[in-house]
Design goal:
- The chain is an alpha+beta fold and 316 residues long.
- Helices cover 21% and strands 26% of the residues.
- The relative contact order is 0.19.
């Protein structure tokens, strides 16, 4: 029996298929070494516009941080109303991901499937106070370069050799499953409130990651909003850190931190992923694999004939 009292669950079956992935085996070894006890999660601090030096302290410790004041000078804070977005971009084509009951649709074989639609049609549904059957996840400067006029590249990642962006717009009640990203992340909440459930990377052996061979290798099989402890008993040992972002807040999310998100109100956000040093090479390799497999936004851009628009190397 495993030290945490879970006998056969020490190596969890791959999504109920009865097969165990290599990742499941490695996770079980880590739990055994730790005697079934996950490490303690750090506290999340709230600070206002830290200096680059102070920010690097948090980054070296791989601890998330809620930062105030970083977007005070952003035109987006006053110009991203639905009416203004329609006026500027209503006839433009934007990328969206299908949702079911407000939750992002994913598939372990095909990943996250992006589609294209007219921006004005998406705004029509939001203005009626309804929840669209899609989540707008737009490649930032890639498809609507004018968005670059509304935001400011943070000084913390301005000189990074690899950088990428996304613009997010969703109705209240829209959520994204538990997942993690390789790159560092600065997530700016511009309109409305958004809730994050966070887990540190050290909790991974308790979170039932998808197999590395799947199209959702960076996603968990566990839903922290609707926990199924019969299917995923090990998750009883870990609790999420809840962070609610208000308009004007920025969340620094270190590399590989797990996060589940939910829009608590009509929500508009913008984020900057970045990587430097050895991490930049790892992220580039991961993006290359996604592009070759036509996963995520690359699949849509390939169908539209717009390869490479999703990624900005040293965007300015």
């Amino acid at each position: 029996m495993a030290p945490d009292g879970e006998a056969d669950q020490a190596i969890a079956p791959d999504g109920g298929s009865g097969r165990r992935s290599g990742r499941d085996v490695l996770d079980a070894i880590v739990r055994l070494v730790r005697r079934g006890r996950p490490p303690r999660a750090p506290a999340i601090e709230h600070v206002r516009r830290p200096s680059i030096g102070d920010f690097e302290v948090y980054r070296r410790r791989s601890i998330p941080l809620v930062i105030g004041g970083l977007s005070d000078d952003w035109p987006a804070r006053s110009s991203w109303s639905l009416a203004r977005l329609r006026e500027r971009f209503g006839d433009r084509r934007i990328s969206v991901i299908a949702t079911q009951n407000g939750c992002l649709c994913t598939d372990v074989k095909t990943g996250v499937a992006f589609e294209a639609m007219r921006f004005g049609d998406y705004i029509d549904v939001l203005e009626r106070g309804e929840r669209p059957e899609y989540y707008l996840v737009e490649p930032g400067f890639g498809w609507i370069p004018e968005l670059g006029e509304d935001v400011r590249i943070p000084e913390y990642c301005r000189n990074a050799p690899w950088r990428n962006t996304r613009f997010w717009l969703s109705a209240a009640g829209t959520s994204a499953p538990l997942h993690r990203d390789l790159a560092e992340n600065l997530f700016f909440q511009v309109v409305g409130r958004k809730r994050f459930y966070l887990y540190p990377p050290a909790f991974s052996p308790w979170l039932y990651s998808n197999p590395l061979r799947s199209a959702l290798a960076n996603y968990s099989r566990f839903d922290p909003e609707n926990p199924d402890y019969d299917r995923f008993p090990l998750t009883r040992n870990v609790e999420p850190i809840e962070v609610i972002l208000e308009p004007g807040d920025t969340l620094y999310l270190p590399s590989r931190w797990w996060h589940h998100t939910r829009s608590l109100e009509l929500s508009a956000s913008f984020n900057f992923w970045w990587a430097d040093g050895a991490l930049a090479w790892v992220v580039r390799a991961a993006e290359f694999i996604k592009r070759k497999r036509h996963l995520e936004i690359y699949g849509l851009e390939s169908r539209l004939g717009w390869p490479g628009a999703a990624t900005q190397q040293r965007a300015s």
